[in-house]
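Homework help board

Subject: predicted structure for assignment chain

Our instructor gave us this sequence and asked us to write out the predicted structure in token form, then describe one feature. I got the tokens but I'm not sure how to describe them. Can anyone check?
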Amino acid sequence: MVNWQALKHQIEMHLMQDKTAFVTTLIDYYGLYSYHQYPDWEEAEKLVDKNSRMKKLEDTMLLDIEAGLQKRFIPYIQLHEFEALLFSEIEVFDNSFEKQEFLDYDYLVETISKNSNPEMINNGLETAPSKRLEKIIKGYYSDKENNKAFYGSTIAHDIGLQKIRSKCPRFNDWIARLENI
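My token output:
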């Protein structure tokens, strides 16, 4: 994860170089820490409601961008991490994996049934969405980027954007903002 000042520099450079471009972000909240120095981090962390916390961080990211560039910057932080979106449709897991490829199918069922909004699956060290997938699917390891990228993109593709949007309201709102550019 890159610190805010480095990311801010890249965002502003892209927006200055192409006056017609828009820039957005897709940042996993799970990987952000105070040392990344995102604007108003400490204030945002005080907010108990995680959706409000994400909104606060996104709003302050926007306000920290040069004023003349702000209208073309759409910040987005994924609560808690991208892999949460993959828990939008159990049928995709059923159709994509053979029974022997599951390490703990019951944990998959439990995770999906207890979280009608996959974005709210928490970010604990053992319960973050990527950590759950490690416990569910053989060969899925969040520390092996190739496996993570392969499984993540394949499952997301098979679920489809519309289904993910229907289950994940923050993600849906972000996509709607992009559609309205």
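Reply (TA_rk): Your tokens look well-formed. For the description, you could write something like this. The first strand starts at residue 23 and ends at 24. That's the kind of observation they're looking for.
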